[in-house]
Amino acid sequence: MIPVLLFIVGLILLIKGGDWFVDGAVGIAHKFNMPEILIGATVVSIGTTLPEVMVSAGGALKGLGSVAYGNALGSIICNTALISAITIAVKPSDVDKKSMKTPVIFFSLALLIYLFVSYFTGTFSRISGIALLLIFIIYMFVSVRQALSVKDNSLAKTQSADSDEGSDKTDEATKETSTVKFVVLLVIGAALIAVGARLLVDNGTIIATQLGVPSTVIALTFIALGTSLPELVTAITSLAKGSGSLSLGNIIGANLFNLVLVSGLSITLAPFDVPCDKLISGINSSLIIDIPVMLLVSAIMIVPALIRGKMSRIQGILMLIIYAAFCTLQFVL
Fold it and tell me: Which end of the chain is more exposed for a tag (fewer CB within 10 A), N or C?
């Protein structure tokens, strides 16, 4: 029972740590007049992906390449077919096709590298990890440039509205206090995420061993769901505030970061072969189930949004059905 309890504690720490980290990061971004598009494309997505980074990097350093691999794929599937699907099924929303193009292009590029390695080389070398990290850096640079161009257009209006000298002096102390508060939330949140991720990967591995369940299955389901909880919190909050498109943007950004940051960092730290815990007709099950499911749910979410500029309830329901079948299949095979 001790590993189970510690596993639960790890999940709780990840949830609270991710919540505080995002609150702190978004608060600091607002204080420095960073536009919402920059917050969603970078800070929020990085914050909600940090649990996956910690879990996968920790697993890779311990020689558990299957955890790093399975958590990245499982998180993308969970983010898309469960979290995003819930928001779409409950409240479909319009989509800004223009804002989606950049993350979708970079996600597709990273996906091509991931697919090439998985199906043709079978080994995630340090070079492939560095290539994924370079995509992450370029994406961040492009996102910041786009966001700052938006900021330049609106900064003049903000400055003219805040030109009252007396109110600036009155609010100065409050702003400084708020900034300190957000920095504290950021630091404490990151610390909780680090501890929670350690508990999660250590005890998740113990539980998998004791139950005789392959570590890849645990990574694709329980650990992936646990590390995706910050995205779930963000999605529910966005839905409650009527900002379903914000949740969709965060999911796409988080999925991109799962490939370029989570996988890229893990592979660079400790290269590993494509895990093969199960075979189906002599073929690695991951290549005929996990990756195809990831591609399928990603296409169901992204393609209609780019074509029509809006989501439909049927998309969410279809993805939820696929996710339920996927989880069931992991334990049946």
Answer: N
